[in-house]
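Researcher: Let's do a round of design. I'm pasting the structure tokens now; please hold your answer until I've finished.
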């Protein structure tokens, strides 16, 4: 960490405010830093505040710098509309997520149909029932773009009261928008329907769902079989498999915790079912000529074979950026002819727009035009990009804090890329990548000590031992 200088300047209240504004990205210059002979940059201001003990190491300025709001939404909620809903409370519905999740927005059910078909139900929180196009709630959600998930706090895209009202399984029964796909054993969908429903949801962690699968619960076995067939079918259509380490980073007054996300089969099952929901929603929208933010992606720049960490690292770098457009197109990375994100309307604005369009069709209302969808997409993507960048930088900040608290620890790192004398290391336990000068081929496992951690610059050095 940055050490305190032998003589630290005393700052007046006005000087501290001036330096903090620069550190937060709310000012471009600082006379105080200039007088001290320091660079007038947010990083330099951050470093000074740390050296003087005016900011704790837990302070993260990245959301401020990027313009991502940290204030919760306080808008009032409208009343639930009076409307007919298909009663699915007789089905077992499971909201499966990480332990401690506070915004359950999707759940799964299965029905066993004649002829060997299985109907996969993906129930999604009916947020659009309360957030109508161009309402104050809609405009604020669009301005945020997405929920901001930081290691030390969550800033919801929508009011927390709305999350409590629409979250699946937070009440005895929950209103939902449900996507039904009649699936055969090969992973093909023979029919797709969308309904406004009422469901009874049981909340489970991934670990609890995995235990149900291992115990042979028919619902969970059917979900796993469906997901496996669907994933195999997408792979045959060119879907890319990318498996890189993931960690959960939590920070509070007691410090930082970095925990690897267990790679349970049920996690992959749930992810595949959510992919099927997005495919089904896109098919439904296309069938009825509804413009929605379809997610598209060009083919990869090159083929990368193998199942090693370096192969997965290289494969991810071949992916083109996902584009959102009002007309359908192929999503090459997923191996799908069309796709739309639909399972997180309380957390991602473009998912909410898809729901608004589906609801308009189901209720006979006038849907938004392609031009309106394109405008909303552009605005929301710009705002969500700031949110995602703030998340990424804040996570790295706290991961470096976690590592700095263990200065003598040796970490196992894998060389995932090599260019000349420079290599890129990946530390799986931290999901942290960093450059190093090392004459080691991709795939080589090294033991490293992390040194010279500088939080303001988010920099660290790896000393190969």
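Researcher: That's everything. Go ahead.
Model: Designed sequence:
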């Amino acid at each position: 960490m940055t050490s305190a200088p032998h003589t630290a300047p005393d700052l007046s209240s006005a000087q501290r405010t001036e330096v903090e504004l620069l550190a937060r990205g709310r000012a471009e210059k600082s006379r105080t830093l200039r007088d001290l002979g320091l660079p007038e940059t947010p990083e330099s201001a951050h470093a000074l505040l740390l050296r003087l003990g005016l900011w704790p190491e837990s302070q993260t300025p990245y959301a401020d710098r990027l313009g991502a709001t940290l204030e919760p939404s306080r808008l009032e909620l409208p009343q639930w509309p009076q409307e007919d809903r298909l009663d699915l409370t007789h089905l077992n519905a499971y909201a499966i997520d990480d332990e401690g999740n506070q915004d359950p927005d999707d759940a799964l059910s299965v029905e066993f149909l004649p002829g060997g078909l299985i109907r996969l139900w993906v129930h999604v929180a009916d947020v659009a029932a309360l957030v109508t196009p161009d309402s104050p709630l809609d405009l604020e959600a669009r301005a945020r773009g997405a929920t901001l998930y930081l290691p030390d706090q969550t800033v919801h895209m929508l009011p927390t009261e709305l999350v409590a009202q629409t979250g699946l399984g937070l009440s005895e029964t929950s209103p939902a928008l449900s996507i039904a796909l009649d699936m055969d054993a090969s992973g093909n969908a023979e029919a797709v329907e969308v309904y406004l429903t009422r469901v009874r949801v049981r909340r489970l962690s991934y670990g609890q769902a995995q235990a149900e699968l291992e115990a042979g619960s028919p619902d969970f076995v059917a979900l796993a079989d469906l997901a496996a067939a669907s994933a195999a079918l997408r792979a045959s259509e060119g879907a890319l498999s990318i498996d890189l380490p993931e960690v959960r980073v939590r920070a509070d007054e007691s410090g930082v915790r970095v925990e690897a996300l267990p790679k349970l089969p049920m996690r992959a099952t749930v992810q595949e079912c959510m992919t099927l929901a997005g495919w089904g929603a896109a098919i439904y929208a296309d069938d009825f000529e509804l413009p929605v933010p379809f997610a598209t992606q060009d083919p990869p720049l090159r083929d990368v074979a193998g199942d090693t960490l370096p192969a997965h690292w290289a494969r991810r770098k071949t992916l083109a950026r996902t584009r959102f457009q009002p007309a359908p197109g192929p999503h090459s990375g997923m191996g799908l002819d069309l796709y739309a994100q639909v399972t997180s309307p309380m957390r991602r604005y473009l998912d909410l727009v898809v729901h608004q369009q589906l609801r308009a069709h189901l209720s006979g209302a006038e849907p938004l035009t392609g031009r309106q969808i394109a405008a909303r997409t552009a605005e929301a993507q710009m705002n969500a990009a700031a949110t995602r960048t703030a998340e990424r930088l804040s996570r790295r900040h706290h991961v470096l804090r976690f590592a700095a608290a263990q200065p003598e620890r040796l970490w196992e790192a894998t060389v995932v890329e090599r260019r000349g004398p420079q290599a890129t290391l990946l530390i799986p336990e931290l999901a942290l990548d960093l450059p190093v000068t090392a004459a080691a081929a991709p795939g080589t496992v090294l033991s490293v000590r992390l040194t010279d951690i500088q939080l303001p610059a988010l920099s660290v050095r790896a000393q190969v031992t």
